[in-house]
Amino acid sequence: MTKQKVTLFWFRRDLRLEDNTGLFHALQSDFPVVPLFIFDDDILDNLPKNDARVSFIYDSLQKINTELCTIGSSVLIKKGKTKDIWKSLLEEFDIQSVFFNKDYEPSAIKRDLATQELLAQNNIESFSFKDHVIFEEKEITKADGLPYTVYTPYKNKWLEKYHILGQAPEYDTKLFFSNFDKNSYSFTELNEIGFERSTIKVQPHNLTQIANYKETRDFPALDSTSYLSPHLRFGTVSVRKLVNWANRKNQTFLSELIWREFFIQILFSFPYCVNHNFKPAYNGIQWRNNEEDFKRWCSGTTGYPMVDAGMRQLNETGYMHNRVRMIVASFLCKHLLIDWQWGEAYFAKKLLDFELASNVGNWQWAAGTGCDAAPYFRVFNPEIQQKKFDENGAYIRKWIPEFDFGYNEPMVDHAFARDRAIAVYKDGILK
């Protein structure tokens, strides 16, 4: 039987049909486009069976599939180890070319290089595209070609280059929808990939909630955030559309999107920072790494209401307000002297918007070990943070219902913890 000649488009962290760079180019190839998603065992095997992010990925694929069904097409879903899946696809189809959007995380780069090598061995061309950033890899560099390691000059160069563009290009994929492969593939059930539906939900994003973002973004009780971060992480929205909107409407929000790209280029340029301090001089810090203290931090029972409310919000919903993330991270690293990697790993398990570059970057910022980080002697006082950003206790009471009925004493005195942290950092920073 003659195998069908096709182009494959490989969905990964770009789960949308609209304004999708790689898909736009794939649909202009000479052969029908089979949209593919691989549930990768190397990723899934490390996740709990009710992981909320897997449910969100599944639902996003189902939404894509429903739209494709209206034009007689569908998503081809596979599960297994990526290399094994591609070997089976070579048997199933006469693949003419493969298109996908780039991912800049170290493990993804390794996976993609291995896939491209396998395709090349079978005389199949592969094409990769920039999609989840405006500027990638080495597009924003210092005059000497080296990457920026301080945010503000990076941002200035980023804005300069963006304004030369006028705006980020948006790709009208619908112009070429007729080139989707007209086959109806069976849509896999969630339990068939070994998962069950999570009770934790990704909230719909809403840009109207950030109309006063600059004035309200630090007050968690106001709930004035966009809920965009998981959608950006999994590409259910186009970063180009968001950036173009933010440039017109909200420069403060645009700065946050640029921070995201700053950390992505840091991870790409310095992949060692995933497991090591960005600043090697901090390698001598003697972390206490007390497991009981860590458990209290994880469970939100430290006795510091702002810390505990944040951790309980995270555990119950997969979200945590950005101001509160800074407070809880500083508390873990400075008050408890627990290695930032412990906190980074816990957030990686819980955050709906977990993205390696931002998670590592922000944790190292809080610990003082990263690029353009908070200085080691800055130790947030959780009580002062509470008075500044949750004066009436509305956020705290939402997540700590027992707050007004005799709350726990703080597990460590702030003044003592601050002095201890500064002393340990001073002793540990290598001269």
List keywords for this structure.
alpha/beta, globular, single chain, five-stranded parallel sheet, deoxyribodipyrimidine photo-lyase activity, lyase, Rossmann fold, DNA Cyclobutane Dipyrimidine Photolyase, subunit A, domain 3, 8% strand, DNA binding, 5 strands, 431 residues, Deoxyribodipyrimidine photolyase
Structural description of this entry:
This protein is α/β, with parallel strands linked by helices and 431 residues long. It has 3 domains: 1-129, HUPs (Rossmann fold, 3-Layer(aba) Sandwich); 208-272, no CATH class; 273-428, DNA Cyclobutane Dipyrimidine Photolyase, subunit A, domain 3 (Orthogonal Bundle). It has 18 helices and 5 strands. It has helices spanning 21-26, 41-44, 52-69, 82-92, 106-121, 151-165, 213-216, 229-234, 239-249, 251-269, 291-299, 305-317, 322-335, 340-350, 356-367, 382-389, 394-399, 414-428; strands spanning 5-11, 33-40, 76-80, 94-101, 125-129. It has a 5-stranded parallel beta sheet with strand order 3-2-1-4-5. Strand 4 (94-101), helix 5 and strand 5 form a beta-alpha-beta unit. The protein is globular and about 75 Å long. Pfam families: DNA_photolyase, FAD_binding_7. This is Deoxyribodipyrimidine photolyase. Its cofactor is (6R)-5,10-methylene-5,6,7,8-tetrahydrofolate; FAD. InterPro entries: Crypto/Photolyase_FAD-like_sf, Crypto/Photolyase_N_sf, Cryptochr/Photolyase_FAD-bd, Cryptochrome/DNA_photolyase_1, DNA_photolyase_1_CS_C, DNA_photolyase_N, Rossmann-like_a/b/a_fold. Belongs to the DNA photolyase family.
